[in-house]
Design goal:
267 residues; mainly alpha; Tetracycline Repressor, domain 2; 2 domains; two-stranded antiparallel sheet; two-stranded antiparallel ribbon; 4 strands; elongated
């Protein structure tokens, strides 16, 4: 009589590592399959199967149930919190600054007309690149879905934790872009018109971007390829609705600093 070979066991993992693996797998499942009406579709069983299929990691109920989460509902709540906490604004603001630098190096900062022209070029360029980054992001649709589910639930409950995470994500977005806008407009001799602030400008721009992003995913033709005579000698250029709105916000929020003179750029 031959004995059965022992079932190979993987490395012993800490509760924190298991938690991280399972939440990351759950988010990936939501990215691939959609949210439906909430995070209910990310079950322990489904996440275990996903990890084994995609990464060769074998977990079981005893790995998580009663050890990390009291029940599956707690796990799904933490997945929602993890999605709500996603904040890629630091990388986005860095990309915005990099795009502005390319425009600034070519700009005529010696005249108000040249400085506003730089704003126009910035809005044309960033209006498209930022919109592309948003709608092409694999996690943004899931984030929006979590936002929608949270906002649709008026009852005071643990969903308030999700709203708190969403609020913190927005705060990070506003703060990072406020810094980017402060830096950029100072190099063009511009400032926010009192009592308006660059924080309010950042909030308005991000709200516009999200709205245009949602419409773009539904009906792209309404948002893209709007021809305007903004090129050299009236050449028609292709704008996004986000870029047009971004320039309108800049014109409304910003003003020239009296007596400002440009200093040499050191980059």
């Amino acid at each position: 009589m031959t004995s059965k070979a022992p079932i190979p066991r993987g490395p012993r993992r800490s509760p924190e590592e298991i938690r991280r693996l399972m939440i990351a797998a759950a988010i990936q499942m939501l990215v691939e399959e959609g949210l439906g009406v909430g995070t209910e579709r990310v079950t322990f069983k489904g996440v275990f199967e996903h990890l084994e299929t995609q990464q060769g990691i074998r977990l079981h109920y005893a790995s998580a149930l009663g050890r990390i989460w009291a029940n599956q509902h707690e796990f799904q709540r933490d997945v929602a919190l993890a999605v709500a906490s996603i904040d890629s604004s630091a990388a986005e603001s860095e990309a915005t600054i990099a795009g502005f630098l390319n425009i600034l190096r070519k700009a005529d900062r010696s005249t108000p007309e040249g400085r506003w022209r730089a704003i126009n070029r910035f809005c044309l360029s960033v209006g498209e690149s930022s919109l592309n980054e948003l709608v092409d992001s694999p996690t943004w649709p899931v984030w929006v879905s979590i936002w929608a589910v949270s906002m649709s639930n008026p009852e005071p409950s643990e969903r308030d934790l999700v709203r708190e995470a969403l609020t913190k994500s927005y705060e990070g977005l506003t703060s990072n872009f406020e810094f980017a806008f402060d830096w950029a407009i100072s190099l063009l001799g511009l400032r926010a018109k009192a009592p308006l602030t660059t924080s309010q400008l950042s909030t308005a721009v991000s709200a516009l971007a999200e709205g245009c992003g949602l419409r773009d995913r539904l009906r792209r033709a309404d948002i893209r390829d709007i021809k305007l005579p903004t090129g050299t000698e009236g050449r028609r250029e292709s704008w996004t609705l986000f870029g047009i709105g971004l320039e309108a916000l800049c014109v409304h929020f910003l003003e020239e600093i009296p007596g400002w003179e440009p200093t040499p750029l050191d980059f």
